[in-house]
């Protein structure tokens, strides 16, 4: 009789629910926000930022763990889990396979467009960015009073790199103007309307890109006056070709 009642007592203890604490472990993903559901009593909870959770359960209950970024997992409450009142669950991250990835270049997006700043930031060309370390700023002059001066401008000047970068900047500016010139008119404009021989069209473009008046029209994007200036330069260029021949 004692053995019978003792077995009933043990069985009743096994059927008693209590709070089970647990921890989710995952190597490469966040363990916050994992849903934990007891399918037997339909109790549920969500893990905190460290993957910890607490849920009411008893021995034999089936717990399921689910998250958008983790693989679905199930675990039953074993006898030892119930006695210790603690569960440790290891979950694995989901592998998301993409059929296609499209890269789009947004060249005009900047901090102002994104609302981060309320003023238009200064845009630097690649050559200008390389030249910036060679310049001494107002803060550098203040630091000079405390005998602190950045070494980069001095090293660039001593090695001749500053002069080389300035030459690169001049070339880059000409290339940018030449690119805008190509956007204005195609080669047929020079060959058909201005009567520039096709083999000299590219040479003519490099010839006129050094004209100060045309450069001002290119910088202000004044195409009408710019084309008038190109026509005048074309006349001079054709005279030069005749004299050269």
The span between the termini is 128 Å
Oligomer: single chain
Mean of residue pLDDT values: 78
Tally of individual helices = 10
* Global geometry: rod-shaped
What strand order characterises the main sheet? 3-2-5-6
Low-confidence stretches: none
Based on CA atoms alone, the radius of gyration comes out at 38 Å
Largest sheet data: 4 strands, antiparallel
Q: Work out the helicity level.
A: 40-55%
Q: Which structural class do you get from the secondary structure elements?
A: alpha+beta
Q: Quick one: how many beta strands? A: 7
Number of domains: 2
Strand content: 15-25%
Question: What is the N-to-C succession of helices and strands?
Answer: HEEEEEEHEHHHHHHHH
Structure, described:
The structure is a single chain. The protein is α+β, with helices and mostly antiparallel strands and 245 residues long. It has 10 helices and 7 strands. The protein has helices spanning 2-15, 79-84, 126-131, 138-145, 151-159, 161-184, 187-193, 201-208, 212-220, 223-244, and strands spanning 18-25, 35-38, 44-46, 52-57, 62-67, 70-76, 86-90. Strands 3-2-5-6 form a 4-stranded antiparallel beta sheet, with no helix packed on it. Strands 4-1-7 form a 3-stranded mixed beta sheet. Strand 2 (35-38) and strand 3 form a beta hairpin. Helix 9 (212-220) runs antiparallel to helix 10 (223-244). The radius of gyration is 38 Å and the shape is rod-shaped. The model has no long low-confidence stretch (mean pLDDT 78).
């Amino acid at each position: 009789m004692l053995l019978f009642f003792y077995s009933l007592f043990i069985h009743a203890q096994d059927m008693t629910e209590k709070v089970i604490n647990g921890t989710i472990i995952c190597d490469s993903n966040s363990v916050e926000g994992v849903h934990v559901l007891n399918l037997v009593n339909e109790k549920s909870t969500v893990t905190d930022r460290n993957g910890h959770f607490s849920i009411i359960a008893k021995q034999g209950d089936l717990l399921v763990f689910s998250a958008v970024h983790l693989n679905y997992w199930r675990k039953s409450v074993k006898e030892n889990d119930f006695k210790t009142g603690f569960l440790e669950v290891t979950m694995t991250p989901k592998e998301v396979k993409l059929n296609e990835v499209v890269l789009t270049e947004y060249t005009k997006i900047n901090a102002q467009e994104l609302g981060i700043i309320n003023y238009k930031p200064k845009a630097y060309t690649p050559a200008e960015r390389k030249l910036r370390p060679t310049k001494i700023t107002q803060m550098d002059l203040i630091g000079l009073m405390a005998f602190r001066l950045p070494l980069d401008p001095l090293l660039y000047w001593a090695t001749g790199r500053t002069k080389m970068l300035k030459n690169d900047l001049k070339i880059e500016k000409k290339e940018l103007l030449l690119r805008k010139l190509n956007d204005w008119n195609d080669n047929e404009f020079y060959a058909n309307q201005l009567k520039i021989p096709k083999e000299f069209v590219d040479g003519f473009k490099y010839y006129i890109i050094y004209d100060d008046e045309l450069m001002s029209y290119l910088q202000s994007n004044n195409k009408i006056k710019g084309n008038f200036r190109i026509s005048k330069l074309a006349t001079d260029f054709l005279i030069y070709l005749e004299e050269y021949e």
